[in-house]
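Design review, sub-item: ligand-bound model
Attendees: FS, YL, KQ
YL presented the inputs for the 2-acetamido-2-deoxy-beta-D-glucopyranose complex:
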Amino acid sequence: MAGARGRFLLAFTVSLVAWWCLALGWTPEQDQNLQIPAGWSHGGRVSPLDELVLTFALRQQNVDHLAKLVERVSDPDSPQYGKFLSLEELRVLVQPSLVTLSTVHKWLGAYGIKDCKTISTMDFLECVMPASTAERLLPGAQFHRYVSGQHSAVRSPVPYTLHEEMAEHIDFVGGLHRFPVERNMASGKEKMAWHRHKREAFHLGVTPAVIRKRYNLTAGDIGVWPNNSQACAQFLEQYFHPADLAEFMQLFGSGFGHRSRVEQVVGHQGQGKAGLEASLDVEYIMSTGANISTWVFSNAGRHESQEPFLAWLLLLSNMSSVPWVHSVSYGDDEDSLSRAYMERINVEFMKAAARGLTVLFASGDEGAGCRNVAGGSHAFRPSFPASSPYVTTVGGTAFKNPFRVTWEVTDYISGGGFSNVFPMPDYQATAVKNFLHLAPKLPPSSYYNRSGRAYPDLSALSDNYWVVTNRIPLPWVSGTSASTPVVGGIVALINDHRLQNGWPPLGFLNPALYKLQEKGPSDAFYDVTQGCHLSCLDEAVQGQGFCAGPSWDPVTGWGTPNFPQLLRALLNL
Ligand SMILES: *[C@@H]1O[C@H](CO)[C@@H](O)[C@H](O)[C@H]1NC(C)=O
Ligand SMILES: *[C@@H]1O[C@H](CO)[C@@H](O)[C@H](O)[C@H]1NC(C)=O
Ligand SMILES: *[C@@H]1O[C@H](CO)[C@@H](O)[C@H](O)[C@H]1NC(C)=O
Ligand SMILES: *[C@@H]1O[C@H](CO)[C@@H](O)[C@H](O)[C@H]1NC(C)=O
Ligand SMILES: *[C@@H]1O[C@H](CO)[C@@H](O)[C@H](O)[C@H]1NC(C)=O
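KQ shared the predicted structure:
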């Protein structure tokens, strides 16, 4: 997962923004953090003829209608449950108005920009243009090159503006400010030191056999439906090696039927060294979602002026047939992103939900997180997209006794908390209110927003995984990047049974999940009730965020899956 990295806008950028607004037009992302993230160094201004790829998010129609539709198709008590839209039906619903389409095309045409690609839902345009044209099109923007290790990115360190008349037609322009996010796993020295400190240096570690035993998957719990599918997404030049996957399955895949090859790679698979995270995602989604056709979305948007995460979303909306389940370990600090951007990305998740896709995000590896707020005090720091009300967010746990496959407790890194941007959705209101009401001790209320979307929704083991990467089996790999593909595979297995019975897949899971749990104690989850996650190292909270407790909590959600019972509960919705 990404580390916290944003700070505040410097006072001077804020006043510059205000000036630009008056002078030249409209700044759609004036709250976007413009700081260059640590690790990226300046490589000079790009030359005027250098080509950029910018992504224009066109204003959609019927977003309110889309939100209502998602509610109906995801609510097991609605007669519309499971009546998902095809990509074509989705286009009819959300595509921008003809006025928007023609205004934007005229505007781009006036600057000589002709090389544009649209997508099936027609609500994004990806256009190639020289840097000099981009700078005239978006007054204020100034394109520079930045370098981090082997990666380079072209970005504008100053805000862009749009013509006032574009304000009702464009949500934001991608490719100016947000840098590709590095996924720093909680694997490194710190966690190892922590384990040594706890005298756990020699324990067994988590393997597919451990996961399958713990979540009560038998040898027979594998996919059999030919059209079922699952996927994980990788950004920032992370590759998996087919040979690593094959070796992993040879070492750890005995005792259950499985595949040892990825069915389809969408995008670019490099030849270089394998990435730890890429190997982890593929190896574990294929161990719980065993024998299910698996896709990898790899490094979409590789041009140095594109945002890879945004490019992945465009891909989803440009393919009529994609896997039913997507596991994504990616996130950024909510407070570093513009509201315009987050709200639009949230609509992209509604679009996925309308199609019946289950989108799972890792909750992050920094517990409640921490940021400075005005007056020298602190507050927790939620992560996005984990905080979107239209995704299912996965937290992390660890074994209480690392030599025994029983009893799970909080993994102290497990991301969780409350959004400052998205209000609490109805589906979780009762569960969250109960938590806030019953928790014996809560952090000071100034640290979080109790009316926001609370996460995670559920969790799984996130500590001490074995992974094969570059042909070498490595222990100690940890993070919610590990728990997310595990849950992804389990959701895909449940979909398998639903498809076998002629029923639609689960789609957006949260409404069904919270409803199921609120019916009364069920055995569908192992309720994690011990341990707290980390947060600010200050006097008020002393490094502690929220603590797990009975029922739902903002550390481990509902707990970890007990496959046979969860299957039973979700099969006959
Ligand atoms: C979307 O798919 C169509 C058809 O395959 C393709 O022509 C178009 O370039 C794609 N759009 C983008 C943004 O890649
Ligand atoms: C694996 O899935 C395929 C369909 O995708 C099915 O034909 C095959 O029987 C399954 N393997 C096992 C061992 O059940
Ligand atoms: C499986 O997928 C193929 C190709 O996408 C499709 O033609 C076929 O109808 C599907 N079969 C079922 C039973 O859904
Ligand atoms: C708390 O969240 C709500 C939306 O859920 C938002 O309107 C409000 O501004 C947030 N408050 C703070 C202090 O961020
Ligand atoms: C698996 O089932 C056993 C009993 O059948 C139960 O004790 C255990 O808690 C279950 N595992 C989970 C993760 O719920």
